[in-house]
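Entry 14: structure prediction run for FAD-dependent oxidoreductase. Input pasted below.
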Amino acid sequence: MSDLHVIIAGAGLGGLALAQGLRRTGISVAVHEKDPTPGFRSQGYRIRINPDGITALKAVLTPRAYEVFTATAATPGPRMDTFDHRLNLLHAQELPSLPDLPGGGNLATNRMTLRQILLSGLDEAVRYGTRLTHYDVSRSGSVTAHFADGTSATGDVLIGADGVNSAVRKQYLPQARVIDAGLRLLYGKVPLADDEARSMVPPELLGLWTTIVGPERRFVGLAPVQYREPMTRVTARLAPDIALSEDGDYLACVLGARREQLPCTDDELFAMDSDQLRALTRSMVADWHPRLVEIVSRQDPASIFPVTVRTSVPIAVRESTAVTLLGDAVHVMSPAIGVGANTALRDARVLTARLAQAAGGRPLTEALRAYEEEMTGYGFDAVRDSADRGHRLVGQDPLPSLQV
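Run finished. Output tokens:
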């Protein structure tokens, strides 16, 4: 076991992946999460896992946990097509297939399932109900994180993996900007519980991700999650110590529009109950192709929740200290190219390797600087690419110029 002790603020996918990687490397780690329980709030449904994400998960998870991940992930193929609201094909896209990776490098996983896999074995490392408020760096270089409940924790490194509203980022990079991208999304899921429900969805809409663009750039995104075997069978066969919630096949359904196109204010939108949210989603596609209207109408109303799309403005990271950032805390992006979670997982893989070098004798600030240079390169490239496609396809606000 290394003498290095790492504090992670935030138990999202990126923070947990980092904790898994550090644990495998023999580095002491403690994760502090503001939510009172792991399932306290909905954080979305289906996630596309691309080659970067798959490679990262293979690096940070134990072999058994990685097997559970691949066995519970759906393999919908490489198609990412775009249609108009009458179901006329606008653009056909087939992503490259990598035969050395499961699913050819194109997987779809349920967010909660992946989260439960990433939590496996971390019971003693994760502390819930501890919201970081600020931190101090001592003259010796150690970092003390302070939490809203009056407690604190001291370590050699503090990682801000605390999401888009990161308290670590606000102190570490106070000049960094996160802006409203002008879009509002309504996330939901359509249960695919039987043959009748499955037959409702045309096969051409069951690719890895399908975008339907309607009038005024209103849009619907569809993506299936269809399991190959029940969760309990997977864990019984591969890892009985990993507890997964059972889940049924479903179609992730995301509706989006410019904020000014919605018939309500943000305050009204975020105060709506489930029936009101479903009525709103129906109204957004009322004159679209009948199949699309039926799909949207079949959403489970309890599954629908609204989201404000926000994006980071790329920024040059200052001189490194014993504090750094990961995932949405540093490079939150619109979902236009579907790589936000994958970029956070990549962060976890890269940072694990750099901290392992520090544990082996490389100066800590030098190791963290190497991570930040690499991470801000691919991370802010993803922010720019997401903003560019979102602007062209669905009217996302243009990204402001680079900050220095």
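Notes: Residues 364-394 form the longest helix (31 residues). Will compare against the previous run tomorrow.
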